[in-house]
Amino acid sequence: MNTMDKITYRKPQIADGQDVHQLIKRCPPLDQNSLYCNLIQCRDFSNTSIIAETSSNKIVGFISGYIPQNRPETLFIWQVALDKEFRGKGIAQKMLAQLFSRNPGIRYLETTISPSNSASKQLFERFFNDHLMDVDSKTLFKSGVHLDKDHEDEVLYLAGPAKSFDPLTA
After folding, report:
1. Chain-centre distance of CA 49, in angstroms?
2. Closest Cα partner for 24 from 60, 65, 57, 76?
3. Which pTM was predicted?
4. CATH: 2.60.120.10, 1.10.260.40, 3.40.630.30, 3.40.50.300. Which one for 7-169?
5. Residues 6 or more apart from 88 whose CB is under 8 A from it?
6. How far apart are CA 91 and CA 170, in angstroms?
């Protein structure tokens, strides 16, 4: 795989479910949901999810998200998966920006990050800073209480509203 391939971004489709499932398996420490879950994400959450694909049609990135029912101005990012060889090239930032700008009513972004996941923290902190978003964080799910004892806490990051966002650069 040539990492210089042109990357395109698009909404997922049901047919992408198996490739998304395999991508997530290649991206520890991400939770490996069932194939069924990934198929549902590609079908029912396609408007709030995005795929990064090479010119040779290989899926190398996937971000899943949704708009919570009681917070229609918020995009919750569930998972970010990017093949190792494509990391550090701005692809995940581009995916987040396109997702955020896809729905003009979105003003806030939420996600959870485990404390040891420094790559995710860096990704989101950069996105929040680039778009001048205020950020609050708090533990949402505690290890040994909500989660198994061997699973770290999940910290909720609440960011927004975006004070600077140019959809043309997304």
Report:
1. 8
2. 60
3. 0.90
4. 3.40.630.30
5. none
6. 11
Run of H or E residues at 52: strand 50-54
Domain extents in the chain: 7-169
Among the listed residues 77, 53, 58, the one whose alpha carbon sits nearest the alpha carbon of residue 67: 77
Nearest to 111 by CA among 170, 30, 53, 42: 30
pLDDT tens series, the chain, 170 aa: 455 579 999 999 999 999 999 999 999 888 889 999 999 999 999 999 999 999 999 999 999 999 999 999 999 999 999 999 999 999 999 999 999 888 888 999 999 999 999 999 999 999 999 889 999 999 999 988 998 898 889 999 999 998 765 544 44
- CA distances for 167 relative to 6, 80, 97, 98, 131, angstroms: 20, 20, 8, 7, 11
* Closest-CA residue to 41 (of 16, 61, 59): 16
